[in-house]
Amino acid sequence: MTVTIYDVAREANVSMATVSRVVNGNPNVKPATRKKVLNTIQQLGYRPNAVARGLASKKTTTVGAIIPDISSIFFSELARGIEDIATMYKYNIILSNSDQNKEKELHLINTMLEKQVDGIVYMGGVISEDHINQFQTASVPVVLAATVDQTETIPSVNIDYEEAAYEATNLLIDHGHQHPAFVTATEETEMNNQKYAGYLRAIKENNNEVKEERIIKGDYSYDSGIEAIEQLIALENRPTAVFVASDEMALGVIHGAQDRGLDIPNDLEVFGFDNTRLATMVRPTLSTIVQPMYDIGAVAMRLLTKYMNKEEVTDQSIILPHRMIERNSTKSE
Amino acid sequence: MTVTIYDVAREANVSMATVSRVVNGNPNVKPATRKKVLNTIQQLGYRPNAVARGLASKKTTTVGAIIPDISSIFFSELARGIEDIATMYKYNIILSNSDQNKEKELHLINTMLEKQVDGIVYMGGVISEDHINQFQTASVPVVLAATVDQTETIPSVNIDYEEAAYEATNLLIDHGHQHPAFVTATEETEMNNQKYAGYLRAIKENNNEVKEERIIKGDYSYDSGIEAIEQLIALENRPTAVFVASDEMALGVIHGAQDRGLDIPNDLEVFGFDNTRLATMVRPTLSTIVQPMYDIGAVAMRLLTKYMNKEEVTDQSIILPHRMIERNSTKSE
DNA sequence: TTGAAAGCGCTAACAT
DNA sequence: ATGTTAGCGCTTTCAA
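The joint structure predicted for all components is written out below.
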């Protein structure tokens, strides 16, 4: 039924080894025989079986990617970066959603190891001891993308979230807002902690006592941005600037404020985080922190290839540069 | 180094066959031995090798998903539907981006077949003869998702794009606009053709001569929406309503119009297509055609499982229902 | 209920 | 430059 390397060998009057050599581009084949083999491969419509190859060679040229939610505009951009570099290095991606659910995450890691992936790019929230243990049992390299592991055990690619949040908050303070509000998320990930820490640092450096009521926790969704700004507006002393931990929530904040009759940025300045495509798809356009999602994915995958090839790696915790981009949701000087 | 089924068998004093049976949940194992085996699996930290299993059983429990661009808000939603159902049926997904590039598409199909996927969910634009041939050489089932094959050779899941476009155009006509404009895309996919046909049908039924200058072709991007509306506004006789073939372009149209001082919907009514999350993330919120992306992905994957299990399939071309949702970018009665 | 053994299709020494 | 052969780790008859 299906054509195997054996069939090709027989038809071409060579050994399996020779066929294998031409299929794998091994130079130790006489051009004439190579041609002959190539021909009969063509004729028989032979298609190498990657599973058999994987078993024999102990390499599958596929890597696992565990992602919270591929339908998120943030993660899908990351995934694209991963995939492009994977393709460049001839790897395929097994992609699975974890919904940041610990059980699922652990289970997925296991499944991917069963499938003998050559490496894993992991995106998630909390990196627990269990995760690290699971990673250790893997005989393959793992790289975290946009995911911070406070123990620094696992190689990772991130930006400096603390510093970025600090800068954004400071910009708002510089615009004359004594104590900008902060809309963040409930999940206690290290990334969120860092953003929070950066915000706090800026507030405190400004000699402010931290007003807890100006810190609202959402869930990174647009709707939770709307809810957050409504709570903020309801405050006795409503803030005149908000730093929001994601662009999607920031759009919610902007629209929620506009729906209540506020003018952005005159009544309320809004600063986002991520610079997803959403940031320019809103009026006024959103000032935000540029987090290079695509690059994080790409660099993470590139790093993984180095580990998979057992290349020397100088820096296992890569921090990519971020920057602020001021658009129209904040005032210009 | 790595623990194999053989090691487990030896330690547990049973045969490999028995270990295989308990791993695969075969009931023909005495509870006592099952327990014994399970214990030593635990002890040794045995992890079944899915590649070996795949070679022996000729099933990999992984399916291929070929997608134009995972970072698109439209396709990533589809992908999530596919993945969720795949997980439900214990399949993993190999996900690859094609960028609608024919070479890449054909190459990806081949790669996935080499990897011995049990089936393929395909999303793309033009389904050429080459595609169909390629699919035929596959010994595994293929299902198209949000992708129409005019020859109806390959099973598929879609909505009725022609009818949907017709309805949307008609709504605009009913609102008193003699000849709404149409912003579509240049690529000549069957899906686009259907949308175009629906638009034309509505225009013609309204006894209009088709004004070509009111049909603008973009590339489904936000920016091309902006460009499109600028062209339309520049027209001598500018249209007062636009039907746009995707939500993302529709946002561009809305913002482009607003930037030119037009009021939506009073000066210009805008109707979108897809009902991506973007539709509610804009002011005014976007009236649009509800295309159930997630469901299309989910149903496509479900259909694929039926083929993979060799179940009876009654309907190989599934048309899911669509509907219109009127929000604030069009006038209410 | 359990075991023995023959593959699955390929790679990778090793030999020639 | 080419061939031989022993696995890779598992499933699956077939026997017992």
